[in-house]
Amino acid sequence: MALYSRVSGSVGMITLQNPPVNALSAAVRQGIVDMMHRALSEPEVKSVVICGQNGKFCGGADIREFGAKMTGPPLVPMVHLIEAASKPVVAAIEGIALGGGLELALSCHYRIAHSKATLGFPEVALGLLPGAGGTQRLPRLIGVPAALDLITTGRHVTAAEARQLGIVDEVTDLNAVDAAVKFAQSVTGKSLDARRISTYPCPRPPDLDAIFERAMQQVRRSARGAIAPGTCVQAVHAAVTLPYAKGMERERELFSLLFTSGQARALQYYFFAQRAVSRWSTANGARWDTSKPRPVRKAAVIGLGTMGRGITVSLAQAGFSVVAVETQEQQLSEAKQAVSGMLERGAKRRGVPLAHDKIKYSCSVQAVADVDLVIEAVFEDMALKKTVFQQLSAICKPGALLCTNTSGLDIDELASQTQSPELVVGMHFFAPAHVMQLLEVVYGPRSSPEVVATAMQMGKKMGKVSVAVGNCRGFVGNRMLKPYLEQAFFLLEEGATPEQVDQVLEEFGFAMGVFKVSDLSGLDVGWKVRKSDGLVSPASTGTSARIRGGSRYSPLGDLLCERGRFGQKTGRGWFQYDKPGGRVAKPDPWLHGFLEEYRAQHGLVARRIDHQEVLERCLYALINEGFQILQDGIAAGPEDIDVIYVLGYGWPRHRGGPMFYAGQVGLDKVVERLEHYQQIHPDVPGLQPCSLLRKLAASGNPAIHKWREVIQKPRSQL
Ligand code: 3HC
Ligand code: NAI
Predict the structure, then answer these.
(1) Residue 90 contacts residue 108 (beta carbons within 8 Å)
(2) What CATH number has the domain spanning 496-503+510-601?
């Protein structure tokens, strides 16, 4: 709601009250409308200040209301009421003015911001556009190019930048509400004719068409199928080409188009999912609200290869003292240089404070004796990791957390090498670790709740989104990747090409198709794992070469590795590159010939495979594994899986994540298609719908937020 008070006799103050971010719920909108009428009717009141409680102006429309029937006064008449007021209205912007919150501020006649406030139109990230006049007022106020930038990217700007752009009139380091009251008193009685943004003509730069053309190209390049960014461009276009009232009509049409789209629903689901994962729980009952994290001041990283370097940078940038240990001298000196470079680039590009002095390098593991937490990032080799954990357990001070960055090895086996297995937990970062936002926190059966809480909190402090997951081969992300990759290989055997499979996945919205990703991360990585699993056998022909442990197996990846085709690093993989380390993938005629020969050798007849089949087999196999993960209690809920896939594996955010997507497709349809493919490929167990998926489908495709009820029942019967 909104509170009304009188300040210094003549200023009516409207304070938005809706914790935690003073979102514009029905009650708040009603309050603003009522209090505006009151302020306008009181003759003693000469001006009005609008502010938010608890140092936050307003976080925009209340997203929690989006799913329900609209009640209360709509936003657009509310902002018109404010702008049309006969008394000056001043917005006192503290903390945030986002989305509808900034639209509210733009309807005021003046804006005073605190220097620490941030402003922006993040609607695009929710699959929407600013729908309360933002797309019509902002270009009138700051010009078309700047408005396009803010509205299509959703980026937040600081108060200083907002001042420079002309969004706010004054920035203060002092109390912004007091400053706004003073300001309101100073403008009492002044004409408001020049202060109503909707009456401004929209600037028309001479190269207008080129500006819009460039903006459209830009959003097409980065949107990966998301419709909101392009629609935002169209709405701003209306501000330039139509009078204000018509522009508002166009904004409304475009807003409702987006609002009712599946993409907006998916993005709004994802918004809450990303916040829900911080309220973690484990299969054995530990929870976020009953587990206290331990204090960590000093951390260590063991192994300064690709991952260790990024983790070191991330820790130092988050303000931790870091001991960085690498036993190979050459690696150590290369790592020092690389880490310095990353820190400098971070400082230059993102304004992160330089943190060289936070890091102490060492070539001896003895240097970690006094740290609170260690992150091990040596080669993915169980024997080596076991030795390192034995050493750490002997060297580290009592109570120090021992974490591993393994991509999928058994956390419990590592824990069993230590004197305190309850202190062992996985912290699985993603490459490049100083950039990627995802952290899988992997708890073993013996990890203590405090240790899980500490790792989750460390991730947050490092700017990551931490997701707690159980211990199993590949955890959540890499475990689901396996059946997805397998299907991609099988499709090549049956007649597809890497470029066809990748094109389908990229059209779906993945940043990169499965084969390009494999070329980027190196085919040898999976090859090593398959070798250590005893899956790679000497080349042979006939069906037996394609069966391992009674299931279908494709040796295609192994055969490429035997020929030295490791992907980008060798200039050849599933695609060809102009040189080793090249980045532009081109179809490789050699590979096409190789596939033909392979099929002939194995008696396989190539067939035409349509896009639908590529998509369904790759995605539904991955999704099915996701349901198995839920059934096994490895992930607590579908949100955990979806956040992992969006942040770690390039799943298109506007499709919500694999579990949300399955719900959108219809769980019964997913079951039906999996059964269809399983009949054709009975030797692929991953195509057999798991029992949780079947159960949910049979219970009428319930909404995703109801899945937990069904998931928890079978588990409690165990
Ligand atoms: N509506 C409802 N709830 C909101 C909300 C909103 N607009 N913004 C944030 N919240 C909730 C979050 O869900 C979270 O709830 P929880 O504690 O129960 O999980 C709580 O507020 C705190 O949010 P964060 O954990 O994200 O806190 P931070 O301090 O990290 O970030 C923030 C605060 C920058 C405001 C961030 O929450 C944010 O970006 N919110 C979304 C803002 C937004 O997109 N506004 C536009 C809405 S659409 C709109 O206005 C349409 C209009 O143009 C017509
Ligand atoms: P890497 O091969 O780049 O680096 C490993 C480093 O560890 C090397 O510099 C090596 O000299 C050093 N090392 C080996 N034994 C050591 C010891 N006893 N003490 C100190 N240093 C030692 O490996 P990368 O890619 O950084 O992987 C590290 C770990 O992270 C592995 O477990 C891997 O599975 C995991 N991981 C890798 C990802 C990737 O994309 N590369 C992603 C996520 C996890």
Answers:
(1) yes
(2) 1.10.1040.10
Is-catalytic flag, 329?
no
Domain with CATH 1.10.1040.10 in the chain: 496-503+510-601, 611-717
| Predicted local confidence at residue 718, as pLDDT | 41
* Site residues for ligand 1, CB cut-off 6 Å: 20-21, 23, 59-64, 75, 96, 98-100, 103, 122-123, 126, 128, 130-132, 134, 275
Tell me the ipTM for this assembly.
0.97
Q: Which two tokens stand for residue 156?
A: 């937040």
- Determine which residue's CA is closest to atom 28 belonging to ligand 1: 21
Q: What is the mean pLDDT of residues 225-234?
A: 97
Average pLDDT score over residue span 43-51: 98
pLDDT in tens, 346-372: 999 888 889 999 999 999 999 999 999
Cα angle: 305, vertex 311, 312; to 5 degrees: 85
Contacts of 91 (CB under 8 A, 6+ apart): 49, 50, 51, 57, 97, 104, 105, 108, 110, 111, 112, 180
The answer to whether the beta carbons of residues 642 and 649 sit under 8 Å apart is: no
Kindly state if the Cβ of 308 falls inside 6 Å of ligand 2.
Answer: yes
Q: From the CA of 154, which ligand is nearest?
A: 1
- Catalytic position from the list 44, 65, 83, 123: 123
- Residue 393 tokens, joined: 């357990």
* 2-259 is classed CATH 3.90.226.10: yes
Residue 699 in tokens: 């219970």
Of 500, 506, 421, 434, residue with least CA distance to 464 = 434
Domain 298-474: CATH class, spelled out: alpha beta
For residue 717, pLDDT over 50 is answered with no
- Helical H runs in 436-537? 449-461, 477-494, 498-508, 514-521, 523-532
pLDDT tens readout for residues 634-677 = 999 999 999 999 999 999 999 999 999 999 999 999 999 999 99
CA of 317 to the centre of ligand 1 (A): 25
Cβ distance 401 to 413 under 8 Å? no
CATH fold for domain 611-717: N-(1-d-carboxylethyl)-l-norvaline Dehydrogenase; domain 2 (1.10.1040)
CA distance 451 to 459: 12
Ligand 2: centre distance to CA 63 (Å)? 42
Q: What is the pLDDT of residues 475-527, one digit of tens each?
A: 999 999 999 999 999 999 999 999 999 999 999 999 999 999 999 999 998 99
Tell me whether residue 376 is one of the annotated catalytic residues. Answer: no
Q: Report whether residue 378 contacts ligand 2, using a CB cutoff of 6 Å.
A: yes
307 Cβ inside 6 Å of ligand 2: yes
Name the amino acid, one letter, at 141: L
User: Tokens in use for 306?
Assistant: 């690709």
From atom 3 of ligand 2, which residue's Cα is the shortest distance away? 305
Q: How many CB atoms are located within 10 Å of the residue 521 CB?
A: 15
Q: Is the CB of 335 under 6 A from ligand 2?
A: no
Q: Which residue of 301, 302, 304, 307 sits with most ligand 2 atoms within 8 Å of its CB, as the best mutation to test the pocket? A: 307
pLDDT tens profile 306-331: 999 999 999 999 999 999 999 999 99
